[in-house]
Specification:
The complex is a heterotrimer of chains A (453), B (176) and C (278). By secondary structure, chain A is an alpha+beta fold. Chain A is 15% helix and 40% strand. Chain A has 5 helices and 32 strands. In chain A, the strands form 8 sheets. A 5-stranded mixed beta sheet of chain A has the order 5-2-6-7-8. In chain A, strands 11-10-9-32 form a 4-stranded antiparallel beta sheet, with no helix packed on it. In chain A, strands 12-13-14-15 form a 4-stranded antiparallel beta sheet, with no helix packed on it. Chain B has 5 helices and 4 strands; from the N terminus they run ααβαβαβαβ. In chain B, strands 1-4-2-3 form a 4-stranded mixed beta sheet. In chain B, strand 2, helix 4 and strand 3 form a beta-alpha-beta unit. The longest helix of chain B has 21 residues. Chain B is elongated, with a radius of gyration of 23 Å. Chain C has 278 residues and is of the alpha+beta class. Helices cover 31% and strands 9% of the residues of chain C. In chain C, strands 2-1-3 form a 3-stranded antiparallel beta sheet. Chain C starts with a helix and ends with a strand. Classes of the chains: A alpha+beta (453), B alpha+beta (176), C alpha+beta (278). Chains A and C meet through helix 1, strand 1, strand 7, strand 8 and helix 5 of A and helix 1, helix 4, helix 5 and strand 3 of C.
């Protein structure tokens, strides 16, 4: 080896050694080692405590909806009920809580609330403006950290005080859970009365908490499976008013309705597309049922989406409107299929034990809810590829799940064995907080509209 | 046999109506009693029905086809017309042949142990299966309507196999 | 093993270089940071980030402590010569688009989280906090530079595991220290995270990684959000609130008890990985 090469090699050798030691010369030592830190686990299953004292009415005034001081308490009650009903919170108040002064609304006494104890605090006020409208302000505080989380305010006519309460509750719920809101919305369903062999079924609507209930049809002819349009202006539903199952679009303001198709064939299972421009429906021709879509405006010709000799029925759009999930018995029993919105690429996604029916795509796009029939009827969810099946309920006959607008709560109806009495129920996605939604009489076919703007 | 009864009933009805519509007639002179005639034993008293059945009516149909002759039953999720169903439908077809102006609706039903939309589709399948068979044995399709009630109109009200079996049915009803 | 000439020369040079280097260290000739007046002494051994194997250096390196951050709000960057720390400002959660039912504008939305004005830990508290380190030795006292030096000297030769043995076969490896510090910090954070963590579908799939920067007193100077893994379509809504909750909980738990200042170099930055159960 030449001398030059030798010295060069030596130099690089030394450089390597010196370089590797240069680390020592630094003060302080460099960043921590790069192996993954040990896992810290924590529990999230408990509910969060939240106090909702009555909203303060600084200058109580009578309104068409009652005195504003009473409204302050009622608004707090609605907020509290909503949060408690969601299953995520354990609420205190407004009953049993002391009155809040106006000054406290923006300067809470954290120590007092800490002592209750309670983790979150809602305070607010109700003012009546010169125009007679209410201004409702609500503030959310984190008692543990002693700071304000969010605040918001609304201007509403007195008779719409409930909407202000729902909006406040939605903001609080959203902020603390990360979920989208859902309290400020309406539900359409079928109200049922009468003996099992002669049920009277009427179309009805109500707020998400059951308030502001209204019957739409009089029950002389059977009404079934209603759906609110995304803009809340109309309701799609099935009626036997002319002796046959026909689908109507009912205009809520005018009270008038029109057929979605003039076809004499029986039609059922009507659904809206997420943008409200398209209607899906099922129609039986010579005994064979397929799924069609038609423009919601009533113009245009129907497009037939399925052609199998089996029963293809129902259908629910994905939130982006590109796909439709539906049920078909083409394989020999009811199963769940997905297809593109033009009817192409139809593929089965349910392969579990049992029959699968009534699929509904979550507004969050992440899951599909369905009824699984295997002896009993149970409500479950699966991912759009059919994986991750989870059953959420366990009763004799729970069916027809539909989604709250935030994709977190599922609503369905339960039939009692024997009596056939029906009732509307809700359950959280996690399977917890199964609860009945109170209705004036029996109820079935519940469908949830979007959050009101 | 049935035709005779109907004819008899019709005659009786007509004559009763006539008599009812008449006022009292003056009897002029009774004819002289025949002597030595033998008319034989007196005829049996005629059967006067309280509510005589109109031929071609729904009651007539029900009576003609016999108990449960107006319906065929199905297995769970099935809509096939088996031999027993065929016999039932044949009797219906015979009645329809007798009353060429009669029209019917076949109502399709399903039991409560199914989901609502699918059961509407299934009821329609069953109604159509009955209709198809009827047309295949000569009934004109234009005389047959179909309608599905899904699970909305149970006839048996229990929540057991027996009730469900009765509810999975296609029922023929005359259109009046 | 035969070495060729190159290797022999190189080895000799390397050994010689080591002697020179270490001698220079001992004489403090290569100290590159300014020695800033310390409020409390920190003995730091060369055990630390270099190796998990304890070494017995012939001399003690007096490290300068990072300058005390004083009473600044935790979100301000510490003026330390430490490796790059990202500044963690309280992030306003993007407010959900809730349109109002009528025309009136909403009240001013203040969607920030103010830092809890926790008072900074005073040195006596920190010193007290340093006590329960499980070794049963006397806590370090402020201004005890020489004292710790004496301690270190006096501990030389003691069996491993006895007292704060720095400079001897170390009683604890860096891994052990990190683990016990981890347990200590986790315990103080856990209950606070539980109080604000959202629940949801597949919430137990999200792992949140944060890195704490701590003062010798156990006070948090800043916390940095590193990443979240395991976010799916179903738990995505909870990812943001969970991150906010963890950051808030980390800040609220400051100052942290039970962190042995003896091993400050090990835990001055502490990485955490958190996940919900169930």
């Amino acid at each position: 080896m030449t001398s030059f090469a030798f010295y060069r090699k030596l130099a690089s050798f030394l450089l390597l050694i010196v370089g590797s030691h240069s680390v020592m010369a630094q003060t302080p030592p460099p960043a921590p080692a790069t192996d993954e830190p040990e896992l810290v686990e924590f529990d999230t299953s408990k509910t969060r405590s939240i106090a909702v004292p009555a909203l303060v009415a600084p200058a109580p005034v009578d309104t068409p909806a009652g005195n504003s001081a009473a409204l302050g308490r009622q608004i707090a009650e609605v907020i509290s009920s909503n949060l408690r009903a969601s299953g995520v919170f354990e609420t205190q108040g407004p009953n049993g809580l002391r009155a809040i002064s106006l000054g406290e609304v923006t300067a809470p006494q954290f120590d007092y609330w800490k002592g209750r104890p309670v983790e979150q605090l809602v305070q607010g006020f109700v003012r009546v403006g010169g125009d007679g409208n209410l201004t409702v302000g609500c503030y959310l505080y984190d008692v543990g950290f002693g700071n304000e989380t969010t605040r918001l305010g609304f201007n509403v006519p007195p008779r719409e005080w409930r909407r202000a309460a729902h909006k406040c509750a939605d903001a609080i719920y959203s902020r603390l859970t990360g979920e989208l809101p859902f309290f400020d919305s309406r539900i359409a369903y079928i109200a049922e009365t009468g003996p099992k062999g002669k049920r009277v079924k009427r179309l009805a609507i109500m707020d998400s908490d059951g308030a502001n209930h209204r019957f739409i049809t009089n029950g002389q002819s059977t009404a079934l499976t209603p759906r609110f349009s995304p803009n809340y202006k109309s309701i799609l539903y099935l009626s036997y008013v002319d002796g046959n199952p026909r689908i109507y679009v009912y205009d809520i303001d005018t009270g008038r309705q029109r057929l979605i198709t003039q076809s004499r064939n029986p039609t059922f299972a009507p659904r809206w597309s997420p943008d409200g421009k398209t209607i899906l429906y099922s129609m039986a021709v010579a005994g064979n049922t397929d799924i069609y879509k038609i423009s919601a405006s009533g113009d245009g010709t129907p497009v037939k989406l399925t052609t199998s000799p089996g029963i293809d029925v129902g259908g629910s759009f994905s939130p982006d409107g590109r796909q439709i999930v539906f049920e078909s018995d083409r394989s020999g029993s009811q199963q769940i299929y997905v297809m593109n919105a033009d009817g192409s690429n139809q593929r089965r996604i349910s392969f579990g034990a049992g029959r699968y029916a009534t699929p509904e795509w979550s507004p969050r796009a992440d899951l599909i809810a369905y009824t699984r029939i295997a002896g009993d009827f149970r409500v479950g969810t699966m991912r759009p590829d059919g994986s991750g099946e989870r059953l959420l309920t366990d009763s004799w006959q729970d069916e027809a799940p539909t989604w709250a607008p935030n994709g977190r709560v599922i609503q369905f109806f339960r039939t009692a064995k024997g009596s056939g009495k029906t009732s509307i129920w809700q359950v959280d996605l996690t399977g917890s907080n199964e609860r009945q939604l109170p209705t004036p009489v029996d109820g079935s076919d519940p469908a949830w509209g979007p959050v009101l703007p | 046999m049935k035709t005779n009864t109907i004819k008899m009933a019709a005659i009786l009805l007509a004559s009763t109506a006539l008599v009812a519509g008449c006022g009292k007639k003056k009897v002029e002179q009774l004819p002289p009693a025949a002597e030595g005639t033998n008319y034989g034993p007196p005829p049996a008293a005629p059967i006067v029905e309280a509510n005589p059945i109109v031929p071609g009516s729904q009651e007539d149909f029900l009576q003609q086809v016999g108990q449960f002759g107006d319906r065929i039953l199905f297995e769970t999720d099935r809509f096939n017309v088996d031999a027993e169903d065929q016999a039932t439908l044949q009797r219906q077809a015979q009645w329809l042949a007798r009353y060429p102006n009669a029209r019917i609706t076949v109502e399709g039903h399903a039991d409560e142990r199914g989901t609502r939309d699918y059961n509407l589709a299934l009821g329609e399948r069953r109604a159509n299966a009955a209709k198809n068979y009827l047309t295949s044995i000569g009934v004109d399709a234009s005389r047959i309507e179909t309608v599905s009630y899904g699970k909305e109109r149970p006839s048996a009200l229990g929540s057991d196999e027996q009730a469900w079996a009765q509810n999975r049915r296609a029922v023929t009803v005359t259109i009046q | 093993m035969a070495m060729d000439r190159v290797e022999k020369v190189g080895l000799g040079a390397a050994i010689g270089g080591h002697v020179i280097l270490l001698g220079a260290f001992g004489l403090g000739l290569l100290a590159s940071a300014d020695t800033i007046k310390k409020q409390e002494s920190i003995s730091v051994s060369l055990v630390g980030e270099i190796a998990d194997v304890s070494t017995a250096p012939d001399a003690i390196q007096e490290e300068s402590a990072p300058p005390a951050a004083g009473d600044t709000a935790p979100s301000e960057p510490p003026p330390a010569p430490t490796p790059v720390m990202q500044i963690e400002k309280p992030v306003a959660k993007p407010v959900q688009k809730l349109a109002k039912p009528d025309t009136a504008p909403p009240l001013a939305k203040v969607a920030t989280k103010k830092e809890p004005p926790k008072t900074a830990a005073t040195p006596p508290k920190a010193v007290k906090a340093a006590a329960p380190s499980g070794k049963g030795t006397t806590p370090t006292k402020p201004g005890g530079l020489s004292r710790s030096f004496e301690d270190s000297i006096s501990n030389i030769g003691k069996a491993p595991g006895a007292g704060k043995a720095v400079g001897t076969p170390a009683a604890k490896t860096a891994t052990e220290v990190r683990r016990s510090v981890g347990i200590s910090i986790a315990g103080q954070i856990r209950s606070r995270v539980r109080a604000c963590a959202p629940s949801g579908i597949d919430i137990n799939k999200i792992e949140t990684f944060v890195t704490l920067s701590l003062e010798p007193s156990g006070k948090l100077t800043s916390v940095r959000f590193d990443k979240q893994v395991g976010v799916t379509d179903s738990n995505q809504p909870q990812a943001g609130p969970l991150k906010d909750c963890i950051l808030q909980a980390v800040r609220a738990a400051s100052p942290y008890d039970g962190l042995d200042p003896e091993y400050y170099d090990v835990w001055k930055t502490h990485a955490l990985r958190l996940r919900a159960t169930g």
